[in-house]
Amino acid sequence: MEPDFIPYLPMLNRPKLSWPDGKRVALWICPNIEHYEFQPKFQRVRDPWPRSAHPDILGYSLRDYGNRVGLWRLFAVMDELELKATVSLSMAVLQHYPAIFEAMETRGWELMSHGLYNTRYHWNFTPAEERAAMEESRQIHRAMTGREQRGWFSPAISNTLNTFEIAAEVGYDYICDLYHDDQPFPITTKTGDLISVPYTVDINDVMAWRKGDEIDAFCQQIRDYFDTVYAEGETQGRVMCIALHPFWIGQPHRIRAFRRVMEYILSHSGVWVATAAEIADHARATQMYGLKDQIEQRSASRG
What's the whole-number mean pLDDT along residues 132-161? Predict the structure, then answer.
């Protein structure tokens, strides 16, 4: 039996999702701009630096490269291609790296919470602890930007069974902790309106890194994925997320290949480059009521 908060509805039975101007694919680029603590506290379930006794100089410095160097290469490519982004952001970055904050604000990038640090996991959090972490993220965002934060994505994908209810309760309206669909999808909660915006753990450079793939293989995966959803999007709109980590994609031997594959995608007229919030808003305004009606009808027929 599937969890009640993510009811099953096959893609083929859904009302058509059409993107603005008849675009086929809503593309959102998601740089994961993270901060890893040098000497983190052990977080109950998983040691953030299991390779060696703390501090793990190699592990820390590899990731630190992203904020020092790799991110600035990624900024340059995104600027040249006129691409916007929704950042999966360790909120401590805003406090530790004012230059990064200024660069993101200058570009108008959306800042989605990825927790406070990427070494502070939420597994086994009590509801009170998880709520406090989400509220702290929102407070930091509000204090630094003057805006309310729209999206939540648990640090290191360490969500709990309470994540969805609490996210809606504290004011988030979309979440990226689910990987179950190619379209935005309503999440059933008792505390508020919440939509899942598709994030990816497949078209994700960290997964390529962990598998030992190099940039050509990763870019071929991006291209093949795009070709499939672009063809499917002619009849039913799709979402494509490309998840990046500046410490990997921002290396000198990788950034040019990434630019080339993005140029290929952007050469197609049916691509809507959007933020995660824009995708959620458009789906909420155009398809979500029809989806909910179908879900209720399916539930009634099964009941």
Answer: 96
pLDDT at 58: 87
Gap between the Cα atoms of 204 and 258, Å rounded: 12
Q: Report how far residue 205's alpha carbon sits from residue 245's, in angstroms, rounded to the nearest whole number.
A: 7
**How confident is the model at residue 3, as a pLDDT?**
63
| Burial classification of residue 39, based on how many CB atoms lie within 10 Å of its CB (0-12 exposed, 13-18 middle, 19 or more buried) | exposed
Q: Give percent of the chain with pLDDT exceeding 90.
A: 76
Using N-to-C axis directions, what is the helix angle for 288-302 and 276-286, rounded to 10°?
Answer: 60
Q: Which CATH class is domain 11-302?
A: alpha beta
Taking residue 156's Cβ as centre, other Cβ atoms within 10 Å add up to 19
Q: Write the single-letter amino acid at 198.
A: P
| b (16+ CB within 10 A) / e for 184-207 | bbbbebeeeebbbbbbbeebbbee
> Measured between alpha carbons, how far is 157 from 136 in angstroms, rounded to an integer?
18
Beta strands in 128-258 (DSSP E): 151-152, 174-175, 185-187, 194-196, 238-244
Cβ–Cβ < 8 Å for 16, 235: yes
Structure tokens given for 78: 């995104």
Buried residues in 112-150 as b, exposed as e (16+ CB within 10 A): bbbbbbbbbbbeebeeeebbebbeebbebbeeeeeeebb
* Domain ranges for the chain: 11-302
H helices then E strands: how many in the chain?
12, 9
What pLDDT is attached to residue 199? 97
- Higher-confidence residue of 94 and 298: namely 94
Q: How far apart are the first and last CA of the chain?
A: 13
- pTM above threshold 0.70: yes
Whether residue 53 is predicted with pLDDT greater than 50 in this model: the reply is: yes
Query: In this structure, are residues 263 and 81 in contact, taking their beta carbons and an 8 Å threshold?
Result: yes
